[in-house]
Design goal:
The complex is a heterodimer of chains A (68) and B (185). Chain A has helices at residues 2-9, 17-30, 36-67. With 68 residues, chain A is mainly alpha-helical. Chain A has one domain. Chain B has one domain. In chain B, 52% of the residues lie in helices and 2% in strands. In chain B, strands 1-2 form a two-stranded antiparallel ribbon. In chain B, α3 packs antiparallel against α7. The model of chain B is unreliable at 181-185 (pLDDT under 50). Classes of the chains: A mainly alpha (68), B mainly alpha (185). The A-B interface holds A 13, 16, 19-20, 22-24, 26-28, 30-36, 38-39, 45 and B 1, 4, 9, 11, 14, 16, 41, 43-44, 47-48, 51-52, 54-55, 58, 138, 142, 145-146, 149-150, 153, 156-157, 159-160, 164-168.
Chain lengths: 68, 185
């Protein structure tokens, strides 16, 4: 349990992913649209996808580190 | 602009004047977003410039300017620099520093973007690269990652300046014959 808590406490570095996700989503959206509205719309969807994918990987890795 | 199911909307109907695409691409490499500004696509130009340059400089600051350097020595093949080079002129000081070090001169600006000295494959107090890893811990890798992604994002931006926004048409629509053909039959 201590290991699990330690791994959760060590997740502060995940905040460094946030500006990267925002930046990647916006640039990705901007390469697919020309107007600012659709760009922001696409960027939001991309950010949700990236965040969801990261969350799944995070949970899987945390469970593995807890179990092993 | 296609919707989620691939149906084009009014955004797709916008005609984009790419002016000279090659010149725009070169400008896009010289400075992120400059190609779009040359094409008078100001909003996208500013968006690319802010996103890519802020990612670049944030990553650079995480490693205090050491995460970007050009080196192709036996024990230090800095392949990450190839990705970082995509950002354009902000990555070029690394080449200047590398050339100075190669000629035996002192690097400029307190070693900012200069390659590390005495790199060996084992832990040594004289190995500058090991010392950087020791000093910055995970931030060295994080800074490298940020600057690499900034470079790769600019490659996307350069392509956008060269060819315009990528529109993905649905397969169903591309299979349909054009309206003129339907009238003829």
């Amino acid at each position: 349990m201590i290991e699990l808590l330690a791994s959760v406490a060590d997740t502060n570095r995940l905040w460094y992913a946030l500006p990267l996700v925002v930046s990647v989503s916006l640039v990705y959206g901007a390469t697919r649209h020309e107007l600012m509205g659709p760009i922001l719309n696409n960027a939001f969807r991309a950010a949700v996808w990236i965040g969801g994918f990261m969350a799944i990987i995070f949970v899987v890795l945390m469970l593995i580190s807890w179990a092993v | 602009m296609p919707t989620e199911d691939g149906t084009p909307t009014s955004d797709d109907m916008i005609e984009v004047d790419l002016r000279n695409p090659v010149v725009a691409a070169v400008w896009g490499w010289v400075c992120p977003g400059a190609g779009h500004i040359y094409q008078r696509r100001y909003a996208k130009g500013v968006l690319f410039m802010v996103c890519i340059l802020s990612t670049w400089f944030f990553g650079l600051s995480l490693g205090e300017g050491h995460v970007v350097y050009a080196s192709w020595k036996k024990d230090d093949h800095r392949w990450q620099y190839l990705c970082q080079l995509g950002v354009g002129t902000p990555a070029l000081p690394a080449i200047v520093q590398s050339q100075r070090v190669k000629k035996g001169k002192e690097p400029l600006f307190d070693g900012w973007m200069a390659p590390p000295q005495n790199v060996v494959n084992y832990e040594s107090p004289h190995d500058e690269l090991s010392q950087w890893h020791l000093k910055y811990h995970a931030f060295f890798e994080l800074g490298t990652l940020y600057t690499m992604i900034a470079g790769l994002l600019n490659v996307l931006a350069i392509y956008d300046a060269y060819a315009g926004p990528m529109v993905i048409a649905s397969e169903e629509q591309s299979d349909k014959p054009p309206p003129d053909d339907q009238d003829d039959t």
